[in-house]
Automatic annotation (TrEMBL), chain A:
Keywords: Membrane, Transmembrane, Transmembrane helix. This is Cytochrome c domain-containing protein. Residues 11-131 form the DUF2231 domain. Residues 565-667 form the F5/8 type C domain. InterPro entries: Cyt_c-like_dom_sf (IPR036909), Cyt_c_Planctomycete-type (IPR011429), DUF2231_TM (IPR019251), FA58C (IPR000421), Galactose-bd-like_sf (IPR008979), GH29D-like_dom (IPR059177), LRR_dom_sf (IPR032675). It comes from marine sediment metagenome.
TrEMBL record, chain B:
NCBIfam families: TAT_signal_seq. Signal peptide: none annotated. InterPro entries: Alkaline_phosphatase_core_sf, DUF1501, TAT_signal_bac_arc. Transmembrane segments: none annotated. It comes from marine sediment metagenome. It holds the Pfam family DUF1501. This is Sulfatase. SUPFAM superfamilies: Alkaline phosphatase-like (SSF53649). Gene3D superfamilies: Alkaline Phosphatase, subunit A.
Length: 685, 497
């Protein structure tokens, strides 16, 4: 029976607003009718009051039944209930008074109407307090919980209770303790409610009563918060779970509890940005586009930080005509401007006074300007200043020692100024949080010079060859040797061109004050004065690496480590035999062959070569043989000359037979595969 | 895509544009769009270059940033070829202990290999031939190959858990630069030029500098499409500055041309082009006009930037004496700083030659020497000038290298194949936590075990630092909205300050 009563009572919210609206309407009609002196309105008002009375009775009835439900604060309920009774009674009376024709009765009409209005207001107010909470109408200046460092935040007080305040307390408070549960402080929460202790694991379930209610499907009657109320977000649920899993600690700090990566992310999202920029952004007013365009038209670069953030960054970097007028142009929105860049401009001490309206500056860039210590006074204005760039200016310790008041300074740039190391140390002491953005002098101390470049027109010559040397920097000295020994600062000093008349291995180094001396560079210049008529290749080079055929071997051009450069002859899986026909008979005592090795490209040095000579081009006589053997395991790309010396022999024809290993060695990634030899040059001497 | 198709595509844009501009329904459409909270039709969805953005270089399509930016510019030191993380940053002593042993299948786990090593009978593990020491406040391990980078370790954020999907150079580099392995999309710099425009009216917003590495001087070449504009207007393509007499090709006037003649020629030409534009409505014509103007201004601005004569000796001591030789990585780093000073938004360097399949120990020594000092010097130089706080410097390649040897393994030599599953990059500057190491690989240096960072995550983070939401920054083409990060990518909040 009571249950049915409460069911009907649930209709209370449906009816409760009707008498309020209707009474108001009646009053408006009454006043309007009197002002306009419309008699006919009287009847309408009368009828309206009748409806008001009926709906008031319905509201009262349903409300009474609803009040039987538990969970409401007795005091509030009592007030609301009896106030409603008074209201309903007076409303009915008012209707009767309106109907009455007796004049003394009509005199009470208006005062009574006012009483009804007062009663409806109060009844409504108390009712509202019961459903929405006492704080609903007049929001108490809520102490917003601001977390700046989540690691050190109180788990319950700063993370959990705000969620409960937001989503639970409106029904579970001292006025309206639904289910006998209060959730407005840790004591009440620990006590639990009609259904038991919130943190006890309920039978048959893995979780506590608290989480069980939260995790029930939305449709379930016991789901919390109830359907229709603002629900917990996924993050809030995760936070509650995390807290309860960790024994619902009321006194813990965040960093005392274990956190998984996901939890860290959620917790971090609770942090409030209290940085100066965030605070200023909140206060900043929007800047009209036309104004910005106007500033830009004056040649000033200006940007709003983003679509939603109305703060401004201004740059006059590299401008050479900044004037006080230009700065005045910006004053209208001075509070919005947080960054100003005057780097490499004509900015100076005089213009500095024009910056006084820009009190919100967080970043000021004055690098490479004419400012001096005289700006000290103005700098004090910028209490929020976080970054100050004075690189390349004439400021000294004087300015630095006065920066104490700029407590918010985080970064300062003082490279290439006259500030002393003592000054820097003092600044660090004055403002402990500051970073002096400078690189230690030792970091790039031991820089090594590049070696000189040895320049000449060719690597081969017949009579003599002029070579010169160049180095990269002025003030570099070059020392060299011609005999293959390692040059030092006591070797020959390079002053002007060197003329070579014999084959030489030139080595050189570069030396410069305050630099580490260079590594040795070397180049070999080969004298080769035996003229040839033609080269007859007895082996055919691979189609892709055939250069100019035989000519390539005698063209006095070295190949590079790039074997497709056209200066190499390549032979796959075969030896190379070639006959060089000289212009005239000559005495020969040395043969050199230039070869390439690149094991990863299946190219190896030849294993040996044989030199034979002839005067008729038909019968050859072997005069020397050189064995290089098989290469040791390696993977480098390299090139070299192999030399063979022998007793001077007269010849018109010289035959070289260069032996290829033919197959990749055992240590190669493809042992036994067809290997290559690459030869670029045959040099006779 | 055929040329005809492209023309059709353009005419569609134009139709809608004129439709919007000339009919009341267009206005209604804009109203509706703003009601729906979308930015569909404002300013021409694809941000066509319009003459009214005036002479001040190229104006960006974004009216305002999505959120306040931490940085104004990016210097991307791309290490092309795939630097070996195992020799440089990711210290794995286990690989030295188990040198020569076969890579356990439980670690490889069926990972696909390139054709270059898939034929190998075994995969012998190999550790670095170079030592690692601890540096900086956090005792971060850095290889002996990078003595200067080691000294700057407190200023950089090392990400050891990068991974990519591509396994060969071209798709992998394309992936990093455009967000897609297939060619055809705009490069990061082009996206930024399109979105943010140029800060300096005399220089392009996106510049490119190339250098060849001494580790492998004849390694893979790079293609200009890597800094191409894709489907964006050609105005946004990267401009390559060469190390030669003419840094930018075809910029100089023919002999005998005076400034006056040139100016009046350009004016007349612009008139004619404009006439053509009125007839054809091809926006590329406007791009062309703008490019002529830009080239005209670059005739003085480029020599100004490229002439490093005025740089003092101590600067060369920082960057290394190579910086005096045009075309080296060091010289390019110095130029990068000079371009940054001129507010060039995206400065892309490529250093080639990291593809060390064989003879890695020999090659990587030279290669590391090419880049170590100059990279560190760039950070130091920016820092002292107060520019590091609004510049993002990125150092990294397109993938990593395997923990097993490719080809010959001896005491002194080995090689490494491409490895997309994990590799190392570093970042420094505005809004990036300095001095930290992010992500972790297993003790074999083969798989990521903590905080993986995908290529798209990296791109999303870079855009985030520039004040751009990578999910909102799109361009509609062929009926679909394209993003740099395609449909993926999340900002790596953990490495941001």
């Amino acid at each position: 029976m009571i249950q049915l009563g409460i069911q009907i009572g649930h209709l209370h919210p449906l009816f409760v607003h009707l008498p309020i609206g209707i009474i108001m309407l009646a009053f408006i009609l009454e006043v309007y009718g009197r002002i306009r002196a419309k008699e006919s309105f009287s009847e309408v008002v009368e009828f309206t009051l009748l409806i008001a009375g009926i709906t008031a009775l319905l509201s009262l009835g349903t409300g009474w039944l609803l009040g039987e439900e538990s969970g409401y604060d007795e005091d509030s309920l009592f007030l609301h209930r009896w106030m409603a009774v008074a209201f309903t009674t007076t409303t009915v009376l008012l209707y009767l008074v309106k109907r009455s024709k007796a004049s003394w009765v009509s005199k009470t009409y208006i005062p009574m109407f006012l009483i009804v209005l007062a009663l409806i207001s109060l009844t409504g107010h108390f009712g509202g307090n019961m459903t929405h909470g006492e704080d609903y109408l007049f929001i108490k200046e809520q102490q917003e919980v601001v977390i700046t460092n989540i690691e050190e935040a109180q788990v319950y007080a700063q993370v959990i209770q705000p969620i409960l305040d937001d989503k639970c307390v409106s029904c579970h408070n001292a006025n309206k303790a639904k289910g006998g549960l209060l959730m407005n402080n840790s004591n009440e929460i620990t006590k639990g409610g009609d259904s038991g202790n919130l943190f006890d694991t309920i039978s048959g379930e893995e979780q506590s009563l608290f989480l069980a209610r939260v995790h029930l499907p939305l449709e379930n009657e016991d789901h919390m918060p109830p359907k229709g109320k603002v629900q917990l977000t996924d993050n809030e649920k995760a936070l509650l779970e995390w807290w309860i899993e960790n024994k619902n600690c009321f006194e813990c700090q965040v960093n005392e509890l274990p956190r998984e990566e996901k939890m860290i992310a959620i917790l971090t999202s609770l942090e409030k940005d209290t940085s100066a920029i965030a605070v200023l952004a909140k206060e900043a007013q929007e800047v009209p586009k036309e104004w910005i365009q106007g500033v830009r038209n004056a040649g000033i670069s200006i940007q709003t930080l983003s679509g939603k953030n109305h703060l401004l960054a201004v740059s006059m970097a590299s401008m050479d005509a900044i004037t006080a007028n230009k700065l005045e142009l910006l004053e209208e929105y001075a509070p919005n401007i947080i960054e100003m860049d005057f780097g490499f401009s004509n900015f100076n001490d005089e213009l500095m006074s024009g910056l006084s309206p820009f009190k919100n500056l967080l970043k000021l860039k004055l690098q490479h300007t004419k400012v001096t210590d005289a700006i000290t006074k103005e700098l004090k204005n910028f209490e929020l200043l976080e970054s100050l760039n004075l690189y390349g200016t004439a400021v000294t310790d004087k300015l630095i020692l006065k920066l104490k008041d700029n407590k918010k300074l985080q970064n300062i740039y003082l490279w290439k100024t006259d500030v002393s190391t003592d000054g820097l140390a003092q600044l660090q002491e004055d403002i402990p949080g500051i970073t002096i953005q400078q690189i230690g002098a030792d970091v790039f101390e031991a820089t090594v010079l590049d070696p000189p470049t040895i320049i000449s027109e060719a690597s081969f010559f017949t009579d003599s060859l002029k070579i010169s040397m160049e180095s990269l920097f002025d003030g570099t000295e070059v020392y060299y040797t011609l005999d293959g020994t390692v040059p030092t600062e006591s070797s020959l000093k390079y002053e002007s061109d060197i003329v070579l008349t014999t084959t030489a291995n030139v080595k050189a180094i570069a030396v410069k004050k305050e630099w580490e001396p260079s590594f040795v560079t070397e180049r070999t210049f080969i004298k080769n004065n035996i003229a040839y008529a033609k080269v007859n290749l007895l082996s055919i080079p691979n189609e892709k690496y055939k250069g100019q055929k035989g000519k390539t071997l005698m063209d006095q051009k070295r190949g590079s480590i790039n074997f497709v450069d056209g200066n190499w002859l390549g032979f796959e899986g075969k030896h190379l035999d070639a006959i060089v026909e000289l212009k005239e008979q000559n005495s020969i005592s040395k043969v050199s062959i230039g070869a390439l090795s690149a094991p990863a490209s299946w190219i190896f040095y030849p294993t040996s070569f044989v030199v034979s000579v002839s005067n008729d081009g038909k019968s050859f006589k072997e005069i020397g043989r050189k064995n290089m053997g098989e290469e040791v395991p390696n993977a480098e790309v390299k090139l070299t000359f192999f030399d063979l010396d022998f007793t001077p022999t007269k010849a018109k024809y010289v035959k070289v037979s260069i032996k290829s290993p033919l197959k990749n060695p055992k240590w190669h990634t493809d042992p036994g595969g067809k290997s290559w030899i690459f030869i670029d040059e045959v040099v006779l001497n | 895509m055929s040329e005809k198709k492209i023309v059709e595509e353009r005419s569609l844009i134009l139709n809608r544009r004129s439709f919007l501009g000339k009919t009341a329904m267009g206005v209604g459409g804009i109203g509706l769009a703003s009601l729906l909270g979308t930015n569909l039709f404002s300013k021409g969805e694809n941000g066509l270059y319009t003459a009214d953005s005036g002479p001040a270089g190229v104006k960006g399509v974004l009216d305002s940033l999505h959120h306040p930016s931490k940085i104004k510019r990016v210097i991307y030191l791309f290490q092309s070829g795939g630097p070996s993380q195992l020799e440089l940053f990711d210290y794995k002593p286990l690989l030295n202990q188990r040198r020569g042993e076969d890579l356990p299948e439980s670690i490889r786990n069926g990972q696909r290999l390139t054709g270059m090593t898939s034929g190998q009978d075994n995969f012998p593990l190999v550790g670095s031939n170079f030592g690692f020491q601890r540096y900086g406040q956090n005792g971060t391990f850095i290889s002996d190959l990078l003595p200067y980078t080691a000294k700057m370790v407190d200023d950089i954020c090392i990400v050891k858990s990068m991974y990519t999907e591509a396994i060969n150079h071209d798709p992998a580099v394309t992936f990093f630069q455009t967000g897609s392995q297939q060619p055809g999309r705009p490069s990061i710099g082009s996206w930024l030029s399109y979105g943010l425009g140029s800060e300096n009216e005399n220089l392009p917003a996106f510049t490119v500098l190339l250098s060849r590495g001494s580790g492998r001087p004849n390694g893979q070449p790079l293609y200009t499409r890597l800094w191409g504009n894709g489907f964006l207007h050609s105005l946004h393509q990267g401009v390559q500055f060469r190390a030669a007499k003419d840094p930018v090709l075809y910029l100089n006037d023919p002999k005998g041309t005076t400034a006056d003649v040139k100016r009046s020629m350009l004016d007349k030409l612009a008139e004619l082009n404009d006439q053509h534009y009125q007839e054809s409505n091809d926006p590329e014509i406007q791009s062309r006009i703008a490019q002529y103007e830009m080239a005209y201004r670059m005739q003085t601005s480029v020599p100004d930037v490229m002439n490093t004569d005025g740089e003092p000796d101590y600067i060369y001591k920082m960057y290394g004496s190579d910086a005096k030789i045009p075309g080296t990585f060091a010289a390019n780093c110095l130029l990068a700083r000079r371009l940054a000073e001129k507010d060039v938004r995206f400065i892309q360097l490529y250093h080639m030659g990291w593809d060390q399949h064989d003879n890695l120990p020999g090659a990587i020594q030279k290669q590391a020497k090419d880049v170590d000092q100059a990279s560190a010097a760039l950070i130091a130089d920016l820092k002292q000038r107060g520019m590091l706080e609004d510049t993002l410097v990125v150092w990294g390649g397109e993938f990593g290298r395997t923990n097993y040897s490719q080809g010959l393994l001896t005491d002194t030599t080995y090689g490494r194949d491409h490895h997309p599953r994990c590799f190392t990059m570093w970042m420094a500057g505005g809004g990036i936590k300095p001095g930290i190491v992010y992500g972790e690989t297993d003790e074999f240096g083969y798989n990521i075990v903590k905080n993986p960072v995908h290529v798209h995550d990296f791109q999303a983070t870079m855009l985030h630092q520039l004040g751009i939401d990578h999910e909102k920054f799109t361009y509609k083409y062929q009926g679909r909205r394209f993003r740099l990060t395609d449909v993926e990518g999340k900002v790596i909040k953990d490495i941001l300050t």
